[in-house]
Amino acid sequence: MKRTLFRTRIKFCGMTRPGDVRLAGELGVDAVGFIFAADSPRRVDAEEARAMRVALAPMVSPVAVFRDNSSEEVRDVVRRVRPVLLQFHGNEEDAFCRSFGLPYLKAIAMGTGSGQGAVDFIALRVRYAGASGFLFDSHGAGESPGQGRTFDWSRLKPGIETPFFVSGGLTADNVHDAALALLPWGVDVSSGIERSPGLKDGDLMRRFVEEVRRADCAELGKSCEAG
User: Fold this and answer.
1) What are the N-(5'phosphoribosyl) anthranilate isomerase (PRAI) domain coordinates in residue numbering (predicted)?
2) Backbone angles phi, psi at 133, to 5 degrees
3) Which residue, among 102, 107, 70, has the nearest Cα to 90 in the 3D structure?
4) Distance CA 124, CA 38 (A)
């Protein structure tokens, strides 16, 4: 199967240090995520994220990540951090996600077991009619994201027209295979580029980007050796 848009977008999530934000931009990452979920070890507050936003390179998008936050918390982040995209990982419904006047991604908890069946994209599109896309993550229902586990990729069938991101357990060692197997709009990584929660590793960040670009070149039947 061929895709029309061959460049896989890359989002680095769970950023907690300006230097990591700056390096992400230098590596050509498309977006960085700031997590505001109360139970996340990578959680930052609005002022911390606002300070890190200054380190963003031009055309790198800030994404605000929530999990069952109150509308007041979301609005405060929108006002102070000025994200261009919202990402919801909890039990939020479409009306809530749309109420902030910004595009949003809805994260779908895929669990880690097999035999759960293919994802019903028609049902998702009906339930989250206002979503700009979906992010499929490996955490189970009620669990926090960022567990560093993969899910059964075969549950995502080829031919998906809605933009979607794949997350959960991605590293430089498996993201090439994931990009080729699923042809996602983008990939999202947090723990796979870290030394410890929130502390990114420059070498892992660089290798991750290189492997995604290698997959993009393979999709086009080209060689990446020239850069």
Assistant:
1) 11-210
2) 180, -175
3) 107
4) 26
Give the global pTM.
Answer: 0.89
Q: Are 77 and 46 in contact (CB under 8 A)?
A: yes
Domains by residue range for the chain, with CATH:
9-219 (3.20.20.70)
What is the rounded CA–CA span in Å between residue 218 and residue 221? 5
Report pLDDT digits (tens) over 112-136.
554 467 788 889 999 999 999 999 9
* Distance of alpha carbon 143 from alpha carbon 212, whole angstroms: 27
> Who contacts 54 (Cβ-Cβ below 8 Å, separation ≥6)?
18
- Is the four-CA dihedral 144, 148, 154, 159 of positive or negative sign? positive
DSSP string, 148-197: -----GGGS-S---S-EEE-SS--TTTHHHHHHHH--SEEEESGGGEEET
The predicted-structure confidence for 177-193, as pLDDT tens digits, reads as follows 999 988 999 999 999 99
Q: Which residues pair with 105 in a beta bridge?
A: 87, 133
Q: Which residue bears the tokens 């086009």?
A: 220
Instruction: Say if CB 130 and CB 98 are below 8 A apart.
Output: yes
The 3-state DSSP composition of the chain as helix, strand, coil percent (nearest 5) reads 30, 20, 50
What does each C-alpha distance from 18 to 30, 51, 55, 215, 225 come to in angstroms? 16, 8, 6, 28, 31
